[in-house]
Amino acid sequence: MKTVKLSIIGFGAVGQGVAQAILQKKDNLADMDINLVVVAISDRTGACVEPNGVDLEAAIKRKKEKGSVATTDLTSLDVIRDIDHNIVLDATPTNIEDGEPGLTYMLEAFRHGRHVVTSNKGPLALKYNMLCDEAHKGGVQFRFEATVGGAMPILNLARDALAGNMVMSIEGILNGTCNYILSRMTEESLSYKQVLGEAQELGIAETDPSYDVEGIDAACKLVILANSIFKMNVTYDDVDVTGITKITPESISLAGAEGMVIKLIGEVRDGDDAIIKVVPKLVPKNHPLAVGGTLNVALLRTDMAGPICVEGRGAGSMETASAVLSDIIAICKKEF
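Above: the chain sequence. Below: its structure as tokens.
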């Protein structure tokens, strides 16, 4: 059985979700001839390191009880540079300002010949080409399915299942918080502020929801799609972005009277009519993009397969862990 050593950098909801997934899927991994060993976990306060494998249950418990996973004062960079392992999982929070600290962690991993899997959108939205170039120089894989649709596979769908097709455009709902707010406004004729407060109470929206409701999160995901699938060489600044904060019950009611719903839609296509934008749009109630609640959905238009639609949960620790684990398994199958 192939032993593959992994570090988890960042141990918030995503990092803990991945640790939980590894525990749950140990037998499934063994069936694939993979022995996945987490040799280090780090957070802002330090790291725990065990060359023979960190006790993941104890690490999760320690994080929940003490707010830190650390048993040493080693930093995340110390782990990436000095601990013997094959794959770095960067599960640090997204920072759209400068991509840090994830950007530095990824570059350091590439320089030390370590494969990288990430759920962190910030570095890719700002420095996609540089990251891919550095991974290529290091002779390692760089995979990031979890950055776009959570559990909903878009990148791997386009890369693998639709290999040989030309993807001509992608449009979809890429932020579950916005979709929840718009869905509730539609169902109950409530105001934006009322539903936002409800979403915050339920933990669907953050205390500061601007990243979601202003369309920033969806725009970051769109940049990753544009660069990875369409090779467009764009950054967040190239996206035309409008959020949902000015949508009123009246506008939703008018849309409903015409058999339409309002959804925050991200759209990207290349060519002479290239476009990359996130904007509220009218969508027919029976359209594949008219999903409700916190669901995400993407419609890929291809030259041979025609339109392909995929939907799923775009957030959540275990849902994101699903995408992360699929990337880790893909690397294991190819490289070890």
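The chain has a mean pLDDT of 95.
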